[in-house]
Amino acid sequence: MSSPAPRGRPRSFDRQAALAAATRLFWDRGYEATSISDLTQAMGIRPPSLYAAFGDKRALFEEVVAGYQATYAAFGTRAFEEEPTVRAGVARMLHEAAAEYTAPGRPHGCLIISAAANCATPEVHDALQAIRNANIERLRTLIAAAVARGEEPAQADPATLARFTGAVLQGMSQQARDGAGRAELEPVAAAAMLAWPAAGPPAGAAAVGR
Question: Where DNA binds (residue ranges) (predicted)?
Answer without folding.
Answer: 35-54
